[in-house]
Amino acid sequence: MPDSNLRSRQHRSHAVRRNGSLQSCEPCRKSKLRCDHERPVCGRCLTKNMVSGCFYHPAPMTKKVTGGSTRSARGSRGRNSQLIASSSTTGAGGGSALPRQNTTLESASASPGYLGSTSYSAILAEHRPEFSLNVDNSSMPTTLSQSMEPERLQTGVRLLKLLQNLTICDSLIRRYYTRVLVAVIPEIVTMSIVRSARNVLGALDFTEDVEDQLQNTVRKVSQNTSRPLSTYRSMTVEQYCAAFTGQNLRWEAIGIIFATAGMSLSSTPESDPDLYQVAADTSARERLRAQLVEASSTCLTFSDQASSVNELLGFCQYSSFVLLTHVYGDSSYQAWRRLRELSATIYAAGLHQDSPMDDNCPFFLRQWRRSCFAAAFSADKNQATFVGRPPSINYRYSTLTPPLDISERSIVHGGDELNAAIARLDRFGWSAEDEVDRASVLRLRFILAVYRERALEIALGTGEHSDTVQNSDEIIKQARESWAVCPVRLRYDVSAEGTESGPLTKSFTLLHIYLDYLYTIFLLQRTVVKRVNTGHEALFDTSRTMLSNIIKGNADSDPAFDLSRHRAWVFLYYGLPSASVLILELLHQNQGIGTYTTALPRAEIIRNLSVFISCLSWVARPGHGNYHTCKEAERKLSHILDQVLDPQPIEDLAFHDATSGLYSLLDWYHPSNPNNWDFNSEYLPPQN
Predict the structure, then answer these.
(1) Where is coiled-coil annotated (predicted)?
(2) Residue 181 and residue 435 in contact, taking contact as beta carbons nearer than 8 Å
């Protein structure tokens, strides 16, 4: 039975023929039957259960000149669509019938993506049901003949060969989803891609020309990538996964394999037996990591050339961004640029807003798209804070609807299980379950990220025409209220009091979230101190809490899970600012210029600072992205602590402000430093 909601779809995305009438789908056009023009599946095809075959060709009457090695666009499409399916089932090299070097790719998507209420087409789109639009479509783009360049073709072949050889990716990905609570891409999506890719590559016939088969596969994957992902309300999870696997395999999907394996590699200990078989030493592991970084980036380059935006591309870009931070560091331009690309995808795909088009989207996909947005939004705020730059995704232009606190299992199963899970949500949207789930973690990270952006507006803004103290107090109050109503199972400050801390990955994840909450308060308090010169005591108390929890959490270890790269992030992102404020205040008190009205617990602070500085010396190993930053921070903080413990004559102007930012804080004693090392965390602009 056709879904009644499917009938109510708007016509604003419909293509118009040159004579002014709406375009028919291909099955109706070829059968010369009347089409109702519904997108993405017309009513006739829906009634006849022909959902998979219903599509709207961008240029249905366009043909190529026949003769020689060229073929009609329609014939080429038909043979191409059989490539992966036939090879998967029979193992025969059936791809030899495909055109070779002059194969035409599907044209890059002519759709500009999401268009908001101020766009050039907004007014006509809003009133389209009121009239029959009759425009001259002769100037609109049609399918272009795009011969695949030999270099790009060979690069694609090399990617497939690399994927075929790196079977370690499969075990790394399984390990990632077994142990990691911050995974963003649904496990069923990633594992469907992995199985499909293995089936495609495993079906190659090695008695035939393998190179020719690989080239045909590259062409097919590139054609798939240029087509938009179509969804409809009655779509199942299996049908959704089939849209980018099997004969529909896309470069974004292959990129997810490489990027997820790379992220997992970063937390896999060197003693892991599977990893040891393929990379027995450090240099071999670094080569493997470099291959995964390069491969995932190349897949994204292919996807960019196709110009088709969707949540799958967003998932791939997010995973690639995280991997780049592991390799190049969190302050690297490579990671910053990839995050900007992710932000562009979020906006172009319309993932930043809930729109009427979501009525044509199945429930599970709505939640996964919200997860993609939530992950990108949170990463954007963390990165903006770390480097002291404005964020790219603005909460004022977004529908801030967090993903529901429902497990992936319940979302995938749907039906009664999903309804029961929804019924167990409290009035704040949290599940009554005791288990710490990936959905719960992502939901809380997103909620805290909204407060972080509001804090960044104050900390990074000019401060003009605003009451800094009042606005900061209001944000802190609301953040504390949100923290108070979140489930106890997600609160490190409460769960840490119990005897059962759980797996290291759980406790470390909860610590990370708790520090994120505290750091938003820290940023606001520091802004008030800098601009108004009040509130020092609150700032120092928050700094002490952050530093002591970092030291406490660092004592946990798990030989089966390598958290060194993640710990380095925590030490630099949360630990260094709080330690910096405290160590400078101790130094100021030595000089008699301290600002704290009550005596600081000097022994406790010095003890924690000593442990923190010691950890900076080993938390990141050579080859890690944040290694040099940790070593430089250790060197400079050690120098300051020496001044605290053994005061020496110094210039007073070097300590003009205990909260003047990490750049001046870490560079005070060596103004002529030839390396000009810049931590780039001056959150506040100069004030007149």
Answers:
(1) none
(2) no
Tokens coding 429: 């949207």
Q: List, in sequence order, the alpha helices (H) in 62-102.
A: 73-81, 83-90
Candidates 301, 361, 258; CA nearest to 155 is 301
pLDDT surpasses 50 at 213: yes
Using DSSP's 3-state secondary structure scheme, residue 271 falls into coil
Enumerate the H helices of 181-272 as residue ranges. Answer: 187-202, 210-225, 237-242, 251-266
Q: Is the pLDDT of residue 51 over 70?
A: no
Q: How far apart are CA 395 and CA 160, in angstroms?
A: 39
Asked if 372 and 315 count as a contact pair (C-beta separation under 8 A), the reply is yes
Angle at 46 between CA 43 and CA 50, to 5 degrees: 130
Identify the residue whose tokens are 């022909």: 50
Full-prediction pTM beyond 0.85? Answer: no
Q: What architecture is the 402-534 domain classified under in CATH? A: Up-down Bundle (1.20)
The whole-angstrom separation of Cα 331 and Cα 569 is 10
Q: How many CB atoms lie within 10 A of CB 523?
A: 24
Task: Determine the Cα–Cα distance for residues 252 and 221; give it in Å rounded to an integer.
Answer: 10
State the distance between the two ends of the chain, measured CA to CA, in whole angstroms.
Answer: 69
Least confident of 82-96, 490-504, 581-595: 82-96
Comparing CA positions, the residue from 223, 108, 84, 219 lying closest to residue 154 is: 219
CATH code reported for the domain at 1-62: 4.10.240.10
d(CA 612, CA 575): 8
pLDDT tier for residue 661 given thresholds of 50, 70 and 90: very low
Side chain identity, residue 235: M
Q: Tell me how crowded residue 675 is: count the other CB atoms within 10 A of its CB.
A: 7
DSSP symbol at 52: G
Q: For residue 67, what are the β-bridge partners?
A: 70
